[in-house]
Amino acid sequence: MTHIAHADPRSTARGRLVTLEGIDGAGKSTHASWLADELTRRGRRVVATREPGGTPLGEKLRELLLREPMTHETETLLMFAARREHVERVIAPALARGDIVVCDRFTDATYAYQGGGHGVPLPSIAALETFVLHGLEPDLTLLFDVPPAVSRERLARAVAHGRALDKFESEQASFFGRVRDAYRARAAAHPLRFRVIDSTQPITAVRGILARIVDEIAT
Ligand code: TMP
Q1: Which end of the chain is flanked by fewer CB atoms within 10 Å, N or C?
Q2: Mutate-to-test residue for ligand 1 from 20, 21, 50, 51, highest number of ligand atoms within 8 A of CB
Q3: Omega before 56 cis (within 30°)?
Q4: Full strand arrangement of the beta sheet holding 194-198
């Protein structure tokens, strides 16, 4: 088993870390697989992964995080515990090989959900980010932006098709309003890293935007 207590993920970052973010129901996961397939088709080696999850332990933590009631602080710590495993075992090695990592959610989700949604102080999240990631940041973050009402509508359609909602998806519209605001604040604070994509557009229009992004990062 590798131990990287002293490793600095930045020193291995030769590939590219592309993250996808947005409130539940923004359509991000469908776009994540399309993006990964398209980059692969263009000859790039791609690792498609997700958070919370991406490792055997991370997937177990995901089960707990999406189902079990817990304090907001516990939730924040478990998100970062899963992330540490993920970075050490999957993301940093992939970046070191020069791969493109397409990650469905990353640290911005903790700022948005635990920070914006649940009110965990942002400096506490920033302290955990420094402790766990040693400065590793995505190279590009695609924020799929939809108003909470659209997200609720999409989730209601999923329920009508027999899907059970998880702990986060069952939150009130006001929660998603705060999460969305926090995401948009992150995007405004990091304009070079973020692309905000209006995800209320038809899927073909969003694909058109993503195709241009693929052109940029595939080369
Ligand atoms: P997903 O449904 O997009 O896979 O994400 C699972 C849920 O986990 C989603 O509702 C957002 C939540 N989440 C957080 O609250 N904080 C985080 O740091 C991450 C990565 C996800």
Answers
A1: N
A2: 51
A3: no
A4: 46-50, 100-104, 16-21, 140-145, 194-198
Give the domain ranges of the chain.
3-217
Q: What angle do CA 54, 13, 80 make, to 5 degrees?
A: 40
For 106-116, what is each residue's pLDDT tens digit?
999 999 999 99
Confirm or reject CATH 3.40.50.300 for domain 3-217, answering yes or no.
yes
Query: What are 159-179's pLDDT values in tens digits?
Result: 999 999 999 999 999 999 999
Mean pLDDT by 10 residues, the chain (219 residues): 41 80 93 96 97 98 98 98 98 97 98 98 98 97 97 93 95 96 98 97 96 93
Give the alpha-carbon dihedral of 110, 35, 197, 103, to 10 degrees. 10
Give the helix/strand (H/E) hosting 20.
strand 16-21
Tokens of 208: 């058109």
